[in-house]
Amino acid sequence: MDHEGSVGFPNLSPFDQGWVVGLLDGEGYMRRQSRGGSHVRLKMCDQDTVERYSRLIGATTSVKSYSDPRKSVKGIPYATMYICNLYGTPAKELMNAIYPHMCERRQVQIQGALI
Length: 115
Hints:
A hairpin with a 2-residue loop joins strand 4 and strand 5 (about 75). The chain is an alpha+beta fold. It is globular, with a radius of gyration of 15 Å. It has helices spanning about 15-25, 45-55, 90-100, 105-115; strands at about 30, 40-45, 65, 70-75, 75, 80-85. About 25% of the residues are buried. The protein has a single domain (about 15-115), classed as Homing endonucleases (Endonuclease I-creI, Roll), CATH 3.10.28.
């Protein structure tokens, strides 16, 4: 694993790089798939945030949304969730780029995803 250097988004401003790192540190999910590939997911109820993230990282996967009417709290349905998934080499590159800037818990999660 190569975790040296700055965030690997040369096309992004330093502000946008920090925004992506902060968003994934707080809301991201990094894992190794059962079939061996890497996976980075962002799942939130803020559509504009997920779309901006997707645009900044150049995600080729579309932003997906879902709402399960069977799930509710006291009869009030959960909010629609918006999801951006990144798989394979792009996911590995993103994890390597953000690794030095993440909290310890996320660094452990990334290490497990990149084995």
